[in-house]
Amino acid sequence: MKLLFVCTGNSCRSPMAEALFEARMPESWRGAVEVSSAGTAAPDGMKAASNAIKALAELSVNLHGHRTRYLTRKMIEDADLIVAMAGGHRDEIADLVPRARDKIMVLGEIDHRRDSPDIADPIGQNEEAYRATRDEIDRLAVMLIDYLVANYDLVK
After folding, report:
1. Domain tally for the chain?
2. Tens digit of each residue's pLDDT (9 = 90 or more) over 110-126
3. Of 26, 85, 142, 148, which sits 20 to 30 A from 109 (CA to CA)?
4. For residue 134, what is the domain's CATH number?
5. How far is the CA of 134 from the CAs of 17, 21, 82, 102, 150, in angstroms?
6. Active-site residue, from 12, 13, 90, 138
């Protein structure tokens, strides 16, 4: 299975989601589930935001090697599930590849108690904002694992 996380710049939300999901996914999924991320307006090759790196390091999750990637049609077509960080991202992805709409979800949609499915963008904010985004994504990554078990051919 190919899982693709998408945000705007691929420097904080989607790479944090990618790294946190990889850190939390069952060991048995390694090799069977390919996790990646990209951005709808990302320049290729930039490092993750320094506050994103710091926030994940506090959980012993390494984001130092991340480099931003611009979202391409091929990435969209190759993915089995695309997890967008906001509804606007879903629309941009579907505009690029309309037939992909059915395999796109917004991460916050798996928690029906939320007021909005969108994950707030911490770019340009302080470390506390990044920690809050990290914690929100981390909680939802665990819920995403359960979602995948319930809706895809994956076993914990």
Report:
1. 1
2. 999 999 999 999 999 99
3. 26
4. 3.40.50.2300
5. 8, 11, 19, 27, 24
6. 13
